[in-house]
Design the sequence.
């Protein structure tokens, strides 16, 4: 819920794409976000819908003209649902579908569909924010497992490459809830902006720390835009790679931004 609430703070007028049915309900607990006024919900219907939205923004269509931000919640769920759609289509055309032999073209088509939809949106004159679930993956070398793991967005490799290449920021969020003896709840949120040995993160917005406690993402973005919205290059971003900070992996989620 925290990743959705945090992502929802960005933008003046937000078109919220509901792909995770229960995700948006956390916004009801935050009336200051303006659910129903500043934030308008749109039910996710399919990847072609995302392409159509990108085209509508490019054409300055009056139906979307009021929005400056599109929030997709969650992009990882969209990728997973579309994989099922493609797989069912392949099975319908090929009853003798073999999962070991025939899944590779399914993954490729799924990646192409998601890539095309993202490119349409990312090229539009708007902010694009996408939340995603995270997963721990074992690092392989020459196709062999190494015993080392990294946490990154829950996408297949082809889709992750597209996300990693085109989003300006990949922020890794961890939420911790502590309750004292009096029953008082202390909710802490850590956000990692730079990559470490075990966690994938990225920022092309300069001046951010490796990890921040309860950062004001909205303020970070607004200050960056007010200063001219200058991105550091991918090469510069790669140089800023600190050592592993020993961040805990529990309850971690990931939010991606294209701003």
Sequence:
């Amino acid at each position: 819920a925290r990743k959705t609430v945090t992502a929802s703070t960005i933008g003046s007028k937000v078109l919220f794409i509901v792909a995770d049915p229960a995700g948006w309900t956390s916004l009801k607990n935050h009336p200051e976000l303006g659910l129903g006024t500043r934030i308008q919900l749109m039910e996710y219907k399919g990847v072609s819908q995302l392409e159509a939205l990108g085209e509508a923004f490019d054409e300055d269509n009056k139906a979307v003209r009021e929005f400056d931000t599109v929030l997709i919640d969650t992009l990882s769920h969209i990728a997973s649902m579309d994989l099922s759609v493609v797989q069912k289509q392949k099975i319908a055309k090929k009853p003798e579908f073999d999962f070991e032999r025939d899944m590779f073209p399914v993954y490729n088509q799924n990646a192409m569909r998601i890539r095309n939809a993202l490119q349409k949106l990312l090229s539009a004159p708007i902010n694009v924010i996408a939340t995603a679930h995270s997963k721990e993956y074992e690092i392989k070398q020459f196709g062999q497992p190494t015993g080392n793991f990294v946490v990154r967005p829950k996408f297949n490799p082809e889709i992750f490459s597209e996300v990693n290449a085109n989003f300006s920021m990949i922020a890794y969020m961890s939420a911790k809830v502590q309750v004292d003896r009096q029953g008082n709840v202390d909710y802490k949120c850590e956000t990692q902006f730079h990559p470490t040995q075990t966690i994938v993160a990225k920022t092309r917005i300069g001046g951010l720390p490796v990890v921040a406690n309860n950062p004001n993402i909205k303020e970070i973005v607004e200050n960056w835009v007010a200063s001219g919205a200058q991105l550091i290059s991918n090469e510069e971003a790669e140089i800023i790679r600190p050592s592993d900070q020993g961040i805990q992996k529990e309850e971690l989620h990931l939010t991606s931004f294209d701003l």
